[in-house]
Write a structure and sequence with these properties.
single chain; 10 strands; Jelly Rolls
Amino acid sequence: MIPQEILLKYNATIKTFEKDATLFSENETARYYYQIVSGAVKMNNYNEDGKEFIQGIFYKQQSFGEPPLFIDIKYPASAVTLVKSDILLIDRQAFFQLLKEHPEIHLNITQSLAKRLYYKAIIASEISSQEPAHRVLRFIDYLKNDVAKTSGDFTFKVDYTRQQIADILGLRVETVIRVIKSLEKQGELKIIKRKVYR
């Protein structure tokens, strides 16, 4: 998202985090802008029964956790590494200075946040009103068309596990497994070496 060389000019640092490291916790004050150099990070919550709900998963060159940074509120979710990850961190004041001096980057951040709001609206609508098969297919189509911007049949590989899809869509993993198999039989998806393609 933001070129690494620009972040480093504003005193960003690159830190390595092992798998399952917590970068920040729910209700913690936002102090840094985070951007992934390598690895993957999930933002999640747990309900009273201990069930995980994944707010989002972020990969190389993506940023996460910005909204609380802009409006000076506490994080609504925790951020945890899914694999060993290198993360760029820049403190809040240096980040704001960077945005003031690079309005084109500010616009890119705004567009990225708008896309995430759109995604949240889609997921909220799907969770509240649709059948599991529709939810899963709509989520995968969103990833293919709006995030990866991929075209062509079965050219997009879903990098999410069945468990992660379940946690994002509020379903049981057994339901997601059954739905994916059913969608494959209908010709909507392909499964190649246990990976799902759309």
